[in-house]
C-alpha cells in the first residue's frame, strides 16, 4: 500500500493561482450590484426566532423564506443572506433551523436576479477544498453567477466541539481559511491538475474541477471586526459584513463607523483591492411617528422574560466586544447589529448618514418580514430613490 501511495503523491507543488473576482467582469451580477449607491439585502431568519410574544408571519421554513427573497427581488434588492449555527439541543430559539448553504443555494432555482449568499463554516470538517470548489462552481452555474459564500471560521467553542475538535485560536482560524481559499481559488482558476501540501494541513493531489465558475469565482464575503478578519477580507473578500463598534444605537454607530470603514478601505488598498462594506440593521417603521412608536413599544413589551437560548455559549468574536445595546433594544435577537426606528423619512435620513459613514449596503432584518418588507417597498424605497441612494 505504501508503494502505491508513493507513486500517486508527487513531490512538486503547484503555484497558487488567484481567481479573477466577479467584479472584474462588467456584466457579472456583482458588478451590477456595485453600481447602486446603497446596496439592499435581506438578512433572513432560517430558524424559528422566538424572542417576543408579539405575533409575526415569520417561520423558519424554506417556502416562507423563498417567498421573502422573491418579494425582495421584485423590489430590486441585490442580496440575500442568512446566518447558520451549529448548536446542541435547546440551543436554538425555537423548533428548527435550516442550513444556509443548502437553502440559499436551492433558492437559485426560484429566483433570477438577486444574489444568494450562503453562510458556510469552512473549518468544520470534513469539508475539503475540493468540496468547496466543486459545490461552489456547481451552484455558480445554477445561479448564473448569483451565488456566493459568506465565509465563517466559527467563534463558538461549542460548535467546534460538536465536530469533535477544540476551538481553534482566533487568528489561526483566519490563517487556516486563507490557505484554504488559496487552494479553492487555484482549483477554480487552474486549467491543469493541482497539487498542494500546505503548512496549515490542506493537501490536494491532482485536484481538478470543471466547469469553472462563470465570472472568475463566486462572490466571497466575510463578517468580522478584528484585525485578522479585516486582513483576510482585504485579500480575499468582495464584501465585508461589519458590526458597529459603538453598539446598536444609531448615534453610537454613526460616531464609530467612519474610522472602522476607513480602516477596512485602507487595508484593502494596501492589498491592491477594493472591498465593499455591509451592515445589518433591524428596521422598524410605520407611516407616522405615533404608529412607529406603538409598533416598537409592542415589540419591546413582548420580549419581557424571553431569553435568547444560544447566548449561554462562549464566543471569542472580536466584533461584539464592548458593544452596548441601544436605548430600546428593539433589534436584539432579531438578526441586526444596529437599530433603525422611525417614519419612512426618518429611516432614509439614517440610511443617508450610514452611507456617509462609509457603508456601501445594508442587510435588513425585519420583525415581521412579510409585512415590514412590503412597507419598506411601498413607503421607504421611493424616498431612497429620491435621495439618490438607489438608481
Automatic annotation (TrEMBL):
Its EC number is 1.-.-.-. InterPro entries: Luciferase-like_dom (IPR011251), Luciferase-like_sf (IPR036661), SsuD_RutA_monooxygenase (IPR050172). GO terms for molecular function: oxidoreductase activity. Coiled coil: none annotated. Residues 309-328 are annotated as: Disordered. Residues 313-327 have a biased composition (Basic and acidic residues). Residues 57-360 form the Luciferase-like domain. SUPFAM superfamilies: Bacterial luciferase-like. Keywords: Flavoprotein, FMN, Monooxygenase, Oxidoreductase. This is LLM class flavin-dependent oxidoreductase.
Amino acid at each position: 500500500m505504501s508503494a502505491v501511495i508513493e507513486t500517486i503523491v508527487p513531490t512538486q507543488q503547484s503555484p497558487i493561482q488567484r481567481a479573477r473576482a466577479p467584479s472584474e467582469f462588467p456584466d457579472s451580477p456583482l458588478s451590477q450590484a456595485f453600481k447602486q449607491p446603497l446596496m439592499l439585502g435581506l438578512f433572513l431568519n432560517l430558524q424559528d426566532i422566538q424572542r417576543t410574544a408579539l405575533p409575526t408571519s415569520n417561520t423558519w421554513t424554506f417556502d416562507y423564506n423563498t417567498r421573502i427573497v422573491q418579494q425582495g427581488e421584485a423590489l430590486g434588492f441585490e442580496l440575500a443572506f442568512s446566518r447558520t449555527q451549529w448548536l446542541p439541543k435547546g440551543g436554538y430559539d425555537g423548533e428548527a433551523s435550516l442550513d444556509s448553504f443548502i437553502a440559499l443555494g436551492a433558492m437559485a432555482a426560484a429566483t433570477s436576479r438577486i444574489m444568494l449568499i450562503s453562510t458556510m463554516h469552512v473549518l468544520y470538517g470534513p469539508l475539503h477544498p475540493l468540496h468547496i470548489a466543486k459545490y461552489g462552481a456547481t451552484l455558480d452555474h445554477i445561479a448564473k453567477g448569483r451565488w456566493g459564500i459568506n465565509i465563517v471560521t466559527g467563534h463558538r467553542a461549542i460548535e467546534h466541539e460538536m465536530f469533535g475538535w477544540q476551538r481553534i485560536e482566533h487568528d489561526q482560524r483566519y490563517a487556516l481559511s486563507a490557505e484554504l481559499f488559496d487552494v479553492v481559488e487555484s482549483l477554480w482558476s487552474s486549467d491543469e491538475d493541482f497539487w498542494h501540501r500546505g503548512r496549515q494541513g490542506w493537501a490536494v493531489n491532482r485536484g481538478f474541477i470543471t466547469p469553472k465558475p462563470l465570472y472568475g469565482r463566486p462572490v466571497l464575503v466575510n463578517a468580522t471586526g478584528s484585525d485578522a478578519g479585516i486582513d483576510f477580507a482585504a485579500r480575499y473578500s468582495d464584501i465585508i459584513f461589519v458590526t458597529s463598534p459603538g453598539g446598536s444605537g444609531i448615534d453610537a454607530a454613526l460616531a464609530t463607523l467612519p474610522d472602522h470603514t476607513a480602516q477596512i478601505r485602507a487595508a484593502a488598498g494596501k492589498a491592491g483591492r477594493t472591498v465593499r462594506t455591509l451592515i445589518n440593521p433591524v428596521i422598524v417603521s410605520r407611516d407616522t411617528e405615533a404608529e412607529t412608536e406603538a409598533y416598537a413599544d409592542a415589540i419591546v413589551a413582548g420580549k419581557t422574560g424571553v431569553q435568547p437560548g444560544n447566548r449561554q455559549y462562549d464566543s471569542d468574536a472580536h466584533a461584539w466586544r464592548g458593544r452596548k445595546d441601544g436605548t430600546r433594544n428593539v433589534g436584539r435577537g432579531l438578526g441586526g447589529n444596529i437599530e433603525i426606528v422611525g417614519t419612512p423619512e426618518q429611516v432614509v435620513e439614517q440610511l443617508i448618514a450610514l452611507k456617509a459613514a462609509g457603508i456601501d449596503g445594508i442587510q435588513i432584518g425585519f420583525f415581521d418580514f412579510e409585512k415590514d418588507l412590503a412597507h419598506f417597498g411601498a413607503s421607504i424605497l421611493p424616498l431612497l430613490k429620491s435621495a439618490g441612494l438607489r438608481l
